[in-house]
């Protein structure tokens, strides 16, 4: 049957019916809000390239989380930010049990025991050269890095982290972290692996936020080629599952919706998480500021696309704004 008997607009003309038939919805439980924590007191430092996002000292982060949790934020991703003189070639502060992330976790869990705290496990914020692993004569050493990543993950779990998220893209790091967590008595702590992480041009604002903007090299020897390889994404995902990953992340999200869908349609049976990264956040903010479009509409459209592609959870810097401005209830 075809037009005029078939009229697809019949299912769209009434708002009640239209809402009743939607296939994809956004819910507050879908979101993970990232936060950046720094040493000091009374610090709330704006990140120029990410309007509305800040670096917080622990005391100010607790104030921020008091507001965020009341709005419905129940999952956060925590990054540590150091001064240059705190960094070294072995990323010692990454696995320091009194380090900034470790102390922040303790303070957060004491005040907000129900808040689900996920920690980024990587070395780039802690090394004086900015790479995600141990560097020797210009080469990032894979196997020598694994022990430090594992020590970092265990120190986060000891502090009270609910989940660890290795973002380094070293081969074998999920297995090393899983074995270390289990040996330390944290077999129930899940691993959300940055399984498919591309050497993307969308990370610029994050480097400012994480204090790594002076990094001059590139990470193409360990992060994935952004332009070409889809089969490699499947291999990376399957390798991490085999090593014990509980969730898989695709990063960035917006330019890799096809990869999310490929993973979703494969035989991979773990939840997929997508990271709407700093560059995506910054571009949407900038576009709205110059009148390209309405921020709310553009953000929600971008997030719906990520969900529609197959992501179960979305890491997005917009999470708090979405909830504070009640965007999900406005059609």
How many domains?
A: 1
Approximate strand percentage: 15-25%
- Quickly name the level 1 CATH class: Alpha Beta
Radius of gyration, whole Å = 20 Å
Number of helices: 11
Specify the CATH homologous superfamily.
Answer: Aldolase class I
Helix content range: 25-40%
What is the correct CATH architecture? Alpha-Beta Barrel
The structural class is alpha/beta
Number of strands: 12
Query: What is the CATH fold-level name?
Result: TIM Barrel
| Largest sheet: number of strands, sense, barrel closure | 10 strands, mixed
Mean pLDDT: 93
Q: Report the span from N to C terminus.
A: 32 Å
Encode the helix/strand succession as letters.
HEEEHEHEEEHEHEHHEHEHHEH
Uncertain residue ranges: none
Shape: globular
What is the topology?
Elements: H1 15-20, E1 31-38, E2 44-46, E3 54-57, H2 58-71, E4 75-81, H3 100-111, E5 116-121, E6 134-136, E7 139-141, H4 142-159, E8 163-166, H5 173-183, E9 192-197, H6 204-210, H7 231-243, E10 247-251, H8 257-265, E11 272-276, H9 278-289, H10 295-309, E12 313-316, H11 319-324
Parallel strand pairs: 1-3, 1-4, 1-12, 4-5, 5-8, 9-10, 10-11, 11-12
Antiparallel strand pairs: 2-3, 6-7
Helix pairs in contact: 2-3, 3-4, 4-5
Task: Write structural notes for this entry.
The chain is an alpha/beta fold and 331 residues long. The chain has a single domain, classed as Aldolase class I (TIM Barrel, Alpha-Beta Barrel). The chain has helices at residues 15-20, 58-71, 100-111, 142-159, 173-183, 204-210, 231-243, 257-265, 278-289, 295-309, 319-324, and strands spanning 31-38, 44-46, 54-57, 75-81, 116-121, 134-136, 139-141, 163-166, 192-197, 247-251, 272-276, 313-316. Helix 2 (58-71) crosses helix 3 (100-111), helix 3 (100-111) runs parallel beside helix 4 (142-159) and helix 4 packs across helix 5 (173-183). It is globular, with a radius of gyration of 20 Å. The relative contact order is 0.13.
């Amino acid at each position: 049957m075809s037009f005029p008997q078939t009229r697809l607009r019949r299912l769209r003309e009434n708002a009640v019916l239209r809402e009743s038939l939607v296939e994809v919805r956004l819910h507050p439980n879908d979101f993970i809000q990232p936060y950046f924590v720094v040493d000091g007191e009374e610090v709330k430092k704006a990140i120029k390239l990410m309007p509305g996002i800040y670096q917080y000292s622990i005391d100010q982060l607790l104030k921020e989380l008091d507001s965020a949790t009341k709005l419905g934020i129940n999952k956060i991703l925590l990054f540590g930010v150091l001064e240059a003189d705190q960094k070294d070639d072995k990323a010692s502060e990454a696995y320091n049990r009194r380090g900034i992330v470790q102390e922040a976790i303790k303070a957060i869990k004491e005040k907000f025991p129900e808040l689900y705290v996920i920690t980024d496990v990587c070395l780039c914020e802690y090394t004086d050269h900015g790479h995600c692993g141990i560097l020797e004569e210009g080469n990032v050493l894979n196997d020598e890095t694994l022990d430090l990543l594992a020590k970092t993950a265990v120190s986060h779990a000891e502090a009270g982290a609910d989940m660890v998220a290795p973002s380094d893209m070293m081969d074998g790091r999920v297995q090393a972290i899983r074995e270390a967590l289990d040996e330390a008595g944290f077999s129930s702590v899940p691993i959300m692996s940055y399984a498919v992480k591309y050497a993307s041009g969308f990370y610029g604002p994050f480097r400012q936020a994480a204090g790594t903007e002076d990094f001059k090299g590139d990470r193409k020897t360990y992060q994935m080629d952004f332009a070409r390889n889809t089969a490699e994404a499947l291999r990376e995902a399957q390798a991490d599952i085999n090593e014990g990953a509980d969730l898989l992340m695709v990063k960035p999200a917006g330019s890799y919706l096809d990869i999310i869908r490929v993973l979703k349609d494969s035989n991979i049976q773990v939840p997929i998480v997508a990271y709407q990264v700093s560059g995506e956040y910054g571009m949407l903010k900038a576009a709205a500021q110059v009148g390209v479009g309405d921020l709310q509409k553009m953000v929600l459209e971008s997030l719906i696309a990520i969900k529609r592609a197959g992501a179960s959870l979305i890491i997005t810097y917009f999470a708090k704004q979405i909830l504070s401005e009640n965007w999900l209830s406005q059609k």
